[in-house]
Amino acid sequence: MTTAKTPAKAARAETDPKPVSYREALTQAMREEMERDPDVFVIGEDVGQYEGAFKVTRGLLREFGERRVVDTPISEAGFVGIGIGAAMAGLRPVIELMTVNFSIVAMDQIVNNASKVRYMFGGQVSCPIVIRMPGGAGHQLGAQHSHSLEAWYAHVPGLKVVCPATPHDAKGLLKTAIRDDDPVIFLESEGLYAKKGPVGGADELVPMGRAAVRRRGGDCTIIAVSRMVWVALSAAEALAEGGIECEVIDPRTLRPLDLEALATSLRRTSRAVIVEEGWPESGVAANLAAHLYEACFDWLDAPIARVTAADVPMPYAKNLEQAALPKPADVVAEVRRLVGREGRG
Amino acid sequence: MAKTRSPSPRETPARPDAELMRGMFETMWLIRRFEERAAEEYMRGRIGGFLHLAIGEEAAVVGAISALRPTDPITSTYREHGQALARGSDPGAVMAELFGRATGLCGGMGGSMHLMDKERHFYGGYGIVGGSIPLAVGLGLAIAYREEDSVAMAMFGDGAVNQGVLAEVMNMAELWRLPVVFFVLNNQYGMGTAVERASAETDLFKRADAFDMPARQVDGMDVMAVHAAVSEAARLAREERQPSMIEAIAYRYRGHSMSDPDTTREGSEKERWQARDPLVTFERILLGEGVVTREDADAVRAGAEETVERAAAFAEESPEVPESELARHLYADPWSDDPRGGAVMPPARDERS
Q: Which of A37, A81, A234 is nearest to B172 (CA)?
């Protein structure tokens, strides 16, 4: 509930250090956890000397040395598997994949090993890894560098799936993920690295499985994942000018999923639009809609609407890429359509 | 046999003493009898799924594992009953796992392909060819990270050599000088495809050349040869942080799994290999050196039979896995109150912040 303006919060805001970027929030989380726990180390392509493709590991090699900040060759399946083995021995690797697109190369290790070793060996072993990787589109990177694969990972029992939308959650959830005893897929958004905001201190964790209400409103619920939270918020702002008040909810983690927070809002507003950057078929929005139909059918005044990427590989041409991605105007249109329907009263 | 940069030795590895040799002989017979019994139980319908037998491969398995310390971590494939037994896992618990019972090594969650005995540093059997090799390298990385003096061994077959991930992790093991032994058990067939129909270079150990890693080939039907080769590989890894690759040439007598009718191989080929049966060969050596008498050898066989009989009886009498276990091991601290698992977090009982 970051939008609640209580006096206490206003007071704290004044004493808070200056806002930091989503990128720096992640760096802080890793640095603090590496200082706290000698078993935590970072491994991935160009994470050391180069300081990360997106500079998220900036300064870590200097501070912690080559033993704990390991540059790898371009061998995603290999070093993800090595991380899993190290985790089975009790270390806590934070594996950086340069982008979510390259995780497809490591899918066997993630799905067949990381998610299953605890279960198939009867609980004898833990796999405390975090696999960090940015996803999303919007920079004309074309068909192979623009994936949003939240749905693929959320599909897999044994994994946890985290998709922070703010610097505060990026830091707090990464710290939680590193301390977690199970494999965590930590999905960052390329489009959010420069986003600034307040962050918590070294001991402030954000729990998994607890959604955040980003804006209060009674006319329609907008559930938005990762960068789409910001798309939803600007849509909500535009709608408010026309007198439609939306409640914007960020699930923050897809596995575990805080269905109750989503359902509570929907039962009050009776209308929901779900926004994600992934594809529509068998996607995150489709899954959340199924959960919400089961939980809230009798409260609904309109079918649940989805705003997703177009059902195509990402095109390069700038105008086509924009056409393929969810935008505030798409969310506004869907909310207007739902609110315009006759309610059952 | 052919050899490249042999992990070779300023000193010859110590030959196993009489007690260890007797132990190796016992373990080989335990594996042989266990596998034969498992095949029978599969035919009776008491074992489900896939059942991959290692009959014919006992020397390679026992020679390699007996060359390590019991605390050296190993990973294996789906043909790994022998690895668990060689590591000292309770045969009853192994058989019960094959039967899918609660008393199994993994509580019935894994089955024949997914045995694990973490207490004995056996890090498991895996069903995707090549997929477990990175885990062994990760175990090796953890050893180096903690500056311990253990050695991790990846055990895999000739089929896995053509999975790309092996090249990836051999490269990293050599690049980072991790204490790892890559042990290829070349049993001549990747399922039904012969090595020469799958690998352009049939001397599989030569793959190590690409990574400037020492490697050698040994007779996998000769338990003493395998023991010596892996002893030296382990010494290199332990003392010099030098990973290496050992290729053991062996033969699997049965088909790929119990559901394989095994029609592609010539009978004469099997006979040729069986004439060099690793158990018979080793017995001859032990008799020659006076390590065992004929009576001792008979007693070892009888003992293995008894152990396996008890293991099967234990498995048969063991309870099924309670349905309440269905989602128990999904997470360290499962959040869902749904017995079938599920992503949904139950509402917080305490006040939401």
A: A81
Which of A76, A105, A117, A124 should one mutate to test binding to chain B, selecting the residue with the greatest count of B CBs within 10 A?
A124
Instruction: Note the pLDDT of residue A6.
Output: 47
CB B144, CB B230: distance < 8 Å:
no
Q: Would you call A145 a catalytic residue per the annotation?
A: yes
Contacts of A245 (CB under 8 A, 6+ apart): A216, A217, A218, A219, A236, A239
What are the two backbone dihedrals, phi and then psi, of residue B335, each rounded to the nearest 5 degrees?
-90, -25
- Give the rounded distance of the alpha carbon of A92 from its chain centre: 21
**Packing angle, helices B278-288 and B18-43, rounded to 10:** 150
Q: What's residue B349's pLDDT? A: 62
| % residues pLDDT > 90 (chain B) | 89
Strand order of the β-sheet with A40-44 is A69-71, A40-44, A92-96, A130-135, A184-189, A160-162, A253-255
C-alpha Rg value of chain B to the nearest Å? 21
In the block, which residue shows the tokens 């739902």?
Answer: A338
| C-alpha distance from A251 to closest chain B C-alpha (Å) | 11
CA–CA separation, B102 vs B340, rounded Å? 18
Burial of A139-150, coded b for 16+ CB within 10 Å and e otherwise, reads eebeeebbbbbb
Per CB-CB distance under 8 Å, the chain A contacts of B346 are 260
Instruction: State the nearest Cα–Cα gap between A210 and chain B, in angstroms.
Output: 8
Mean pLDDT in each 10-residue stretch from start to end of chain A (345 residues)?
45 64 98 98 97 97 98 98 98 98 98 98 98 96 96 98 98 98 98 97 97 98 98 98 97 98 98 98 98 98 98 98 98 96 51
Let me know: does B223 contact B29? Beta carbons within 8 Å.
Answer: no
B210 in a domain, yes or no?
yes
pLDDT (0 to 100) of residue B261: 86
Position A167 scores a pLDDT of 98
Q: Is A345 on the interface with B (CB under 8 A)?
A: no
Tell me whether residue A139 is one of the annotated catalytic residues.
Answer: no
Query: Within 10 Å of residue B333's Cβ, how many Cβ atoms?
Result: 7
Containing structural domain, residue B235:
18-324
Angle, nearest 10°, between helix axes A167-179 and A22-36? 30
Which 3 state secondary structure label does DSSP give B263?
coil
- Test mutation, B75, B106, B141, chain A, max A CBs within 10 A: B141
> Strand, coil or helix: what is A281?
coil
pLDDT in tens, B17-33: 999 999 999 999 999 99
Q: Does B347 touch chain A (CB under 8 A)?
A: yes
pLDDT band at B2 (very low <50, low <70, confident <90, very high): very low
Q: Which pair of tokens denotes residue A71?
A: 């540059």
User: How confident is the model at residue B7, as a pLDDT?
Assistant: 52
Q: Which of A33, A45, A76, A321 is catalytic?
A: A76
Report if residue B352 sits inside a domain.
no
B186: tokens are: 């070349």
Q: How many domains does one find in chain B?
A: 1
Mean pLDDT, range B183-206, rounded to an integer: 96
Identify all chain A residues contacting B101, using CB atoms and an 8 Å cutoff. none
- Region of residue B203 (phi > 0: left; psi between -120 and 50: alpha; otherwise: beta): beta
The mean pLDDT value for B197-217 works out to 97
* List of domains in chain A: 21-197 (3.40.50.970), 212-339 (3.40.50.920)
- Tokens representing A267 are 């039962």
CATH number, domain with residue B133? 3.40.50.970
Is B13 part of any domain? no
Residue range B58-95, pLDDT digits in tens: 999 999 999 999 999 999 999 999 999 999 999 999 99
Partnered with residue A21 across adjacent β-strands are A196
| Residue A335 CB-density burial (10 A; 0-12 exposed, 13-18 middle, 19+ buried) | buried
The answer as to whether B58 is a domain residue is yes
